[in-house]
TrEMBL record:
Origin superkingdom: Bacteria
Family per similarity comment: Belongs to the universal stress protein A family.
UspA domain boundaries: 3-145
InterPro entries: Universal_stress_UspA (IPR006015), UspA (IPR006016)
Xref: PANTHER family: STRESS RESPONSE PROTEIN NHAX (PTHR46268), UNIVERSAL STRESS PROTEIN UP12 (PTHR46268:SF6)
Name of this chain's protein: Universal stress protein UspA
Signal peptide positions (record): none
Amino acid sequence: MSMRHHILIPTDFSENAWSAALYALKLYAEKPCTFYFLHAWTFSSGSRTYVSPSYIDILQDKSKAHLAEVKELAISESTNSEHKFEILFRLDPLLDAIKNVIEEHHIDQIIMGTKGATGAKEFLLGSNTVSVIDKVRLCPLLLVPSNFAYVTPNQIGFPTDFNRGYGDELQPIKNLADIHNSRIKVLHINSKEHLTETQNANMDFLKTNLKDYQHSFNWVPDKGKKEHAIESFIEENNINILTMINYEHGIIEDFIKEPVIKRLGYHSDIPFFVVPHTN
């Protein structure tokens, strides 16, 4: 009896959000899952004119109807009778809604699209996505690029610098590898000739921890920007999902803190799995 996965899919009814839903259905095609479609609704009138409550009711009903349609579409796309679908309509800002739903429904993963409906060209990741990566540290997050055609993730890339000890955050990466018996390709971008004692100890721990998984350790010299090294690694190794641990003050935070999130461009090609660091 395999465990049931509880997966949260926030939706703004964009093509992009639907891409992420399709990816989730295919990724978990063989697994018992409950998928929760969440729409967080906040009214913004833009101007200060009076808006009648009945008009707001109409808008809310429209959103609820869209949510029901998404569920029906998902049911028709799913190939597994062990897939269940729930819809959640919340009158909260997105981040609050996500946090509450994670706790109420014991969500173990969020899957969402990387571009919002606004399609602001300057953000490869919509501002919503960025705040979710930044603020939601309760469970892993899988970001799916828009119009990404599903590929079985045979190769999972895992860049790490061995500078910090590993704890529970390795488990979601292993769970991801378990779904399709994927190989975990650890990538280390080495800026110095030798690892420190701490790095060696952490690397040994990681090797031991991954011993039951197909895995390899890959060394790439540091020749400039880390994201270029990661990008080449993805291409040369046919990586299907890139996974990273989101430490306080780590590489992901550096990417997110850029004034315009151009540097996340290299993730726009394949899904990106962000695991929060657990203290």
